[in-house]
Design brief:
alpha+beta; seven-stranded antiparallel sheet; Thrombin, subunit H; globular; nine-stranded mixed sheet
């Protein structure tokens, strides 16, 4: 099999095209229809999505996992980024402060204390003096992506209005464009809406680090979809409905469940060139960073023409990445 060189997923993304601010009204954000090369406002999404469609969203919550505090005695700044809760008092975390960090350290902080109990491949396992739920609720803030300047007023815009359950540290950004009013407009046109849950981890921001895309060891993430919901989606598809995945996370989850018949678990499905799609007919997704595993999905759907498409979007001043605009792709389907 011919492998894809990482240079095939590279392009120049000007800093000025990375959206630093969310749209005040998500319905003002824009979507590029890759079939027609036309740009529309999301307020008209009910006219962009094909007739007889079912939209699938990821409703995992973005948790306030970023904890900024200070050391009790030195007043040095400390940042704890909670990646995964192990039990009521323990979690796997990124830990940032000046100075060495080693297993066995006890650190007194402003409102609580932590012990470093284990080295991990990424970060440390910490034991907290207070329950994690209390730490998150009282001291946690929303974790914005690394390329977005951290400002309090942006936090509320980095969560979907329908999210519930789950434990994500990054948003399903394609879904940020949708509002309750747009859901209502879609349903008036008998466009169905379904939900699944995939907990998005920090791995979503990591660029592919291997020379060839297919050699990359992609991160795994927890997912769950109700068996009844999955069968409803498949039955709709068999009855001629278009399955529209809102976000790459819903796409990966549905294709993983199709391959494995497991409705809950972990997925490390890596969609690369020549991937055979079985469930999804369309994908709505934001514009992705160079050399990312998300851009590999775009290439698998749209081929090398994605570069011309991205150039077109840049020339038309569309905004990129998490707070930016979106694109809709039609998927050549080989499945059901």
């Amino acid at each position: 099999m011919n492998k894809t060189h990482i240079s095939n997923l590279d392009y120049h993304l000007p800093k000025s095209s990375i959206a630093q601010d969310p749209y005040e009204n998500p319905e003002d954000s824009r979507i590029l229809n890759s079939e027609t090369m036309t740009i529309h406002k999301f307020e008209n999404i009910d006219n962009v999505v094909p007739y007889r469609s079912l939209l699938v969203f990821n409703n995992s919550q973005v948790i306030d996992v970023r904890v900024k505090t200070i050391k009790k005695h030195t007043h040095g700044s400390v940042e704890i980024f909670i990646l995964r809760i192990v039990d009521e008092y323990s979690a796997d975390c990124l830990l940032k402060f000046n100075g060495k960090k080693k297993v066995g350290d006890h650190i007194e902080l402003d409102k609580f204390s932590i012990n470093i109990i284990k080295n991990l491949n990424e970060g440390f396992r910490l034991k907290f003096s207070l329950p994690l739920e209390q730490i998150i609720n009282n001291y946690g803030t929303t974790p914005l992506p690394p390329y977005i300047e951290d400002m309090d007023y942006k936090y509320e815009h980095y969560k979907t209005f329908f999210s519930e359950n789950g434990f994500s540290v990054a948003a399903s950004t394609a879904a940020l464009h949708f509002t309750p009013y747009l859901f209502q407009k879609l349903q008036i046109k008998e466009i169905d809406i379904k939900f699944l849950n995939l907990d998005i981890g920090l791995g979503t921001f990591k660029p592919i680090s291997t020379e060839y895309v297919e050699d990359y060891d992609i991160h795994s993430e927890d997912y769950e979809i109700k068996e009844e919901t999955y069968h409803e989606i498949i039955n709709k598809k068999r009855n001629g409905y278009n399955i529209v995945c809102v976000g790459t996370t819903t796409l990966r989850t549905l294709e993983h469940v199709y391959k494995t018949s497991k409705f809950k678990g972990k997925t490390d499905l890596f969609i690369t060139n020549r991937f055979k799609f079985n469930v999804a007919d369309y994908l709505i997704t934001n514009f992705h960073a160079p050399k990312s595993s998300l851009l590999s999905i775009v290439q698998a759907i749209y081929g090398d023409s994605w570069k011309k498409l991205y150039d077109f979007a840049l020339e038309n001043n569309m905004k990129f990445l998490s707070f930016g605009d979106a694109v809709m792709f039609k998927i050549k389907n080989n499945g059901i």
